[in-house]
Write a structure and sequence with these properties.
This protein has about 160 residues and is an all-alpha fold. About 80% of the residues lie in helices and about 0% in strands.
Length: about 160
């Protein structure tokens, strides 16, 4: 007994066999796990581990006020990075899961949502540098100093070549 299922990307009179269906499902699940699941779990694990370490350090050194301000800045930065990842990656995970579960219903609004979710993935890639720049004073000062140093070195090299 041979079982054939209808696949949305094939013509009406064609069918796809279970091995092909398994391969398609495997691709969807693998991509969802590798692109969203594992990075999210890793990010949560690292963030929670760092927050616990900061909390322990803060309890041990509760008398110094400057380390508390620094620890609070690090905590805000870590939480902001985690929330940004979830906000930027979750729409694509939802669209991808929806199209995997219901491949026959693909419409224009879903295409726009898919495009927006892909754009949010790109924004997530660029967001960490922006987050560090605005939330970490040392990072901002080092970046500005590095840019000024590179600009001065470029002028010096150009003058030497003349």
């Amino acid at each position: 007994m041979e079982v054939h299922l209808h696949c949305s990307y094939l013509k009406d009179n064609e069918t796809c066999a279970p091995p092909l269906l398994f391969a398609i499902t495997y691709r969807y699940v693998l991509r969802l796990v590798l692109v969203f699941g594992l990075p999210l779990l890793l990010l949560i694990f690292v963030t929670v581990s760092l927050l616990i370490a900061l909390w322990k350090r803060q309890r041990m050194h509760s008398s110094t006020h400057s380390s508390n301000a620094s620890d609070n800045s690090i905590t805000v930065t870590l939480i902001t990075i985690l929330v940004t990842f979830i906000v930027c990656q979750l729409p694509f995970a939802i669209v991808y899961t929806y199209t995997a579960v219901n491949p026959l219903y693909v419409c224009i609004p879903l295409y726009y949502f898919y495009s927006i979710s892909r754009a949010l993935e790109v924004v997530n890639s660029a967001a960490n540098g922006v987050i560090y720049f605005f939330l970490n004073r040392k990072f901002r000062a080092a970046l500005i100093a590095d840019c000024r140093c590179n600009r001065n070195n470029t002028n010096t090299i150009e003058m030497a070549n003349v």
